[in-house]
Design brief:
By secondary structure, the chain is α+β, with helices and mostly antiparallel strands. It has one domain. The longest helix is centred in the first third of the chain and has 22 residues. The model has no long low-confidence stretch (mean pLDDT 88). Pfam families: PIG-H (PF10181). Belongs to the PIGH family.
Length: 129
């Protein structure tokens, strides 16, 4: 009887650990910005699984560093602001980046500056019809 309970507990623990590693534990996050195409956000999980999201550059309004208060401290995170299709001046969605790795502010500033350079090049480039 006791060995059955112990075996069941070990099995449930192992299944829980596998689910955690496959769906929750993000090992690495990356951001690829191509001015003429868009922004690709990739998350690599501890199990080796990868999740990729692509945002077309035409939908991107801006990239900003946002701040939030979490457990008595201020945390900073990078966000992509998506343009509202009905209102060109409005924002339809805020897409947070690097939610698992939580890089320091100085690292976020470097990524922010690079993103802003690419966005500025896109705005100043002549639009082809």
């Amino acid at each position: 009887q006791n060995s059955m309970v112990l075996s069941a507990a070990i099995f449930i623990t192992l299944v829980g650990l596998i689910i955690y590693l496959h769906f929750v534990k993000i090992d690495q996050e990356s951001l690829l910005v191509i001015g003429s195409l868009g922004i690709q956000v990739t998350s690599s999980y501890a199990s080796g699984k990868e999740s990729t999201t692509f945002i077309e550059m035409g939908r991107v309004k801006d990239v900003v560093i946002n701040e939030a208060i979490h457990m008595q401290k201020v945390i900073y995170y990078l966000c992509i602001l998506l343009q509202d299709p009905e209102d060109p001046q409005g924002v339809s969605e805020v897409v947070p980046l690097f939610q698992s790795s939580k890089p320091r502010l100085d690292c976020l500033i470097e990524v922010y500056k690079s993103c802003q350079e690419i966005l500025e090049q896109r705005k100043t480039a002549p639009q082809s019809s």
